[in-house]
Amino acid sequence: MRIDIIRPAELDAALRARWHAIRHTSAQRYLRSPFFAPELAELIGQVRPMARIAVIEVDREVAGFFAFERSPLGNAGPLGGRMSDGHGPVLDARVSIDPGKLVRSCGLLGWRFDHLPADQPGFGRFESARSRAWLIRLDHGFEAYRREIDQRTSWMRRNQAKMRRLEREFGPLRFEARTLDAMPFEQLARWKSDQYVRTGQVDNFAIAWIRDYLDRLRQVESPALTGMMSTLHAGDRLIAVHLGMRSEQVWHHYLPSYDRELSSHSPGLCLLHRMAETAPELGLNTIDFSSGDMDYKLAVSNEQVELAQGSVEPAPMRALRRSAQATVERMRRVPWVLQAARWSRRRVIDQVNAMR
Description:
This protein is an alpha+beta fold and 356 residues long. It has helices spanning 13-25, 38-45, 99-105, 142-150, 155-170, 182-198, 208-219, 267-278, 295-300, 315-332, 335-354; strands at 2-6, 51-58, 61-70, 75-77, 90-91, 110-117, 127-137, 173-176, 226-234, 237-246, 250-258, 286-288, 303-312. Helix 5 (155-170) crosses helix 8 (267-278). It is globular. The mean pLDDT is 90.
């Protein structure tokens, strides 16, 4: 095995084509996600100077790619950090590579992951937990999907009633699957920032590189990666926005938001309904919500994919990390400790958000 470390901007047409060939011949269907496209690595490389790609050669043939972000201390994490909903090596199915050897060969002390497809060979011993990516599968079209969902939930019927109510009160609904207009992006940023602050989370739109990345993402267009800024209007009023991305057949549900004054009308779910209706017409057979067991994801999804969390690092470091995590979990069960931790976390987040 030979590994060359390059910057994303150094990918040439031949390497890009080989990367796509591996994605589309792999039995790991989750690699069809736009998060595993070389174009996304190139985009993130424009805003993250420590982004790197390991080009893996076996018997003088390119056998895979491994994208990561290196820290100054020699550890690494997913490309795109907190904004990554999918990561891991993209490997030729004929090649078996030990993850520990791969990470060491990249000159890294360790690699942390939290959205690794759980069917990625060799990573089982490095896992510490699992989550699920929730999917809408539309292989047989929207009507077949609707019939399937209607058998176990009434969310579509409720949505249709709410859409009729919106039209009566505000005017005809107008859905746009992709717009390049900057105004919806600015409105999304305001809505999401308000949501982050209100719920005690770090405001992603206050972080310069994330805002730059998202602004670039909404404008990118290629067969394997296209930014999808979708909008829903009721009359002349913008009521919901979603910024996502698509690859050849997968639409990744990424950053949705809506007008909170109309929350009783569920405008975000109405937008999602229109996305699902339109996806097959756009050549898309999957909407990927990634992880997070929110009620709406459970209601609308008809398939799940297991995702792994953990770290590839020497056994003593891994044992120490898991011991520390177990200690934290025990401490969280002590009420006053949990209350103090929540207070401290909120103060830190408030200070970060105040720097906007």
